[in-house]
Amino acid sequence: MRGPVLMSVRSTAIALAIFLAATPCAAAMPANPLTFFEGRTESVSTVRIAMKKPFRSHAIGKGVIKPDGSLDLIQRVEDEGQQPRERRWRMRQVSPGHYTGTMSEASGPVTVEEINGRYRFRFRMQGNVAIEQWLTPMPDGRSARSVITIRKYGIHVGNSDGYVHKLD
What are the boundaries of each domain within the chain? Predict the structure, then answer.
């Protein structure tokens, strides 16, 4: 992977960690888990890409729930060694436990499904890069663990491990 594709993959690792991280368990699940992202959230992770030095990624997000129930999320993403940039998400629930939407760095839809209290994200990026992320809510109800797998042409080329937490 080269240039913009590599930068996009690295930054996506952080962006994915922001979306549905708040739901601590089924018993404490809010009626709409998107509401976790109202206000400010922070994500910190370490990204590892094949044949590259691991780097830290950090993102601060500000989310708003729109009148139609969708989430608009704007993030300031800072990957170690790169210039900060902005990323935009628009997500909505389509059925119980299923969400869809867009993200400015994705080359198609972002899909999210709840599976046994965890959330699985899937989407594609330029250069035939596929992202799969698992968010596991933590018992505190204000944070989640994020594990991301990055594939290019179906071959595992990277991963990310980090946490997301609510700042407000």
Answer: 3-166
Residue whose token pair is 């595992």: 156
| The pair of three-digit structure tokens given for residue 33, joined into one six-digit string | 């888990």
> 127: alpha, beta or left, given left = phi > 0 and alpha = psi -120 to 50?
left
d(C-alpha 96, C-alpha 88), whole Å: 24
Topology adopted by domain 3-166: Lipocalin (2.40.128)
Of the CA atoms within 13 Å of residue 101, those in its CB half-sphere come to 24
Instruction: Report DSSP letters for 57-103, one per residue.
Output: EEEEEEEEE-TTS-EEEEEEEEETTS--EEEEEEEEEEETTEEEEEE
Distance in angstroms (rounded) separating the CA atoms of residues 51 and 155: 14
Q: Count how many Cα atoms sit within 13 Å of the Cα of residue 18 in the half-sphere of its side chain.
A: 33
Mean pLDDT in residue range 68-88? 95
24/3 Cα distance (integer angstroms):
37
Residue 150 has pLDDT above 90, yes or no: yes
* Residue 132 β-bridge partners: 122, 149
Instruction: Note the pLDDT of residue 99.
Output: 95
For residue 109, give the nearest of 96, 127, 121 by alpha carbon. Answer: 121
